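2024-03-11 09:14:02 DEBUG pipeline.ingest accepted 1 chain
2024-03-11 09:14:02 DEBUG pipeline.ingest length=119
2024-03-11 09:14:03 DEBUG pipeline.predict start
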Amino acid sequence: QVQVQESGPGLVKPSQTLSLTCTVSNDSITSNYYYWSWVRQPPGKGLEWMGAIAYSGVTYYNPSLKSRTSISGDTSKNQFTLQLTSVTPEDTAVYYCAYDLWPGKGPYWGQGTQVTVST
C-alpha cells in the first residue's frame, strides 16, 4: 500500500513562503497513473484542493491560489513539494498530501500537518 507523509515547519511568518514536503513510500511518484495532491483545511472550514502533480510531471492548480502556489516533484527522493508564497494568517490550516490512482482509486490521505501563520 502506498503511503504519503507530510513534513515541514509548523509556524511561518506573514509574507514568507510556506514549504511542505510529502514523502511517498512503496511506489514511485512517476509510476502510472498516480496524481499527487495538496489539500488544506482552515480552522472551522471545509477542505480546499490546492493543486496536484501527475505521474508525468504535469501540474494542476486551484485558480484561486495559482498565483501563489507551486508544486514540484523530486524523483531522487520520491517526494513532492508545495510552496505557497506571501502567506497571511488566512493560510493557517491543516495541510494534507494525498494521492489518487487512475482510474477510480483514492483519494488516500496523509495524516496532515498543522501550519500556523503568525508573527
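2024-03-11 09:14:41 DEBUG pipeline.report The CA atoms of residues 90 and 111 lie 21 Å apart.
2024-03-11 09:14:41 DEBUG pipeline.predict end
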